[in-house]
Amino acid sequence: MASITSLVSALFLAFCLKGLQYFHLIKWNPIGFYKKWELFEGSSKLFQWSFFILVLFIIGFLLFITLRYVYIIPAILSSFLLGLFLTITLEWMALDLPLQLSSFKKLSIPFMVVVICLLRFLLETANFHQREHTAQKGN
What is the dihedral sign for C-alpha 73, 61, 19, 86? Predict the structure, then answer.
C-alpha cells in the first residue's frame, strides 16, 4: 500500500510542479537542478522528468514508512509544519534568496499548498494503515 500511495503522490506532485511552472506560479524549474549539478544534461526531458518522479517516489515512500509511527500527532499539524519547513527550504535553495525578512514575499504560496496537501494525503493514509495494522494485531 505504501508503494501505491507514494507513486500517486509522486505523479501528482510532478504534474502540479509542471503546472505551477507553466502558469508562472513558481519562478524556478522543477528539473533545473540537473543543469546546476551537471547531471543528465544530454538526456531527453522525458528521462529527466521520469528520474525526477522516481526520486519523488523514493522520498514519498520513505516519508510514508517513517511517519506512520507518529500517528499520535494529528496529521494536519505535522503535515502543515513539515510542509512549511520543506517548501521554504526548497524555494530558498532554488531561488538563492538572502536571509532577509523581505525574501518571504518571493515564496510561492501555491507551491506550499500543494506540498502541504500531498503531505497530508501521505500522513493520513499512513496513519490509517498503521491503525488498521495495530487493530488487526489486537484481534
Answer: positive
0.85 exceeded by pTM = yes
CB within 8 A of 40, min separation 6: which ones? 34, 47, 48, 51
CA-wise closest residue to 112 among 66, 79, 67:
79
Q: Which of 41, 50, 44 is nearest to 14 (CA)?
A: 50
Task: Check residues 8 and 103 and name the one with the higher pLDDT.
Answer: 8
The pLDDT assigned to 18 comes to 94
Beta carbons of 60 and 9 less than 8 angstroms apart: yes
Residue 1 burial (10 A CB sphere; 0-12, 13-18, 19+): exposed
First to last CA, the chain: 21
Element (H, E) at 17: helix 2-22
> Cα(20)–Cα(28) distance, rounded to whole angstroms?
10
Among 35, 27, 134, which residue's Cα sits nearest to residue 90? 27
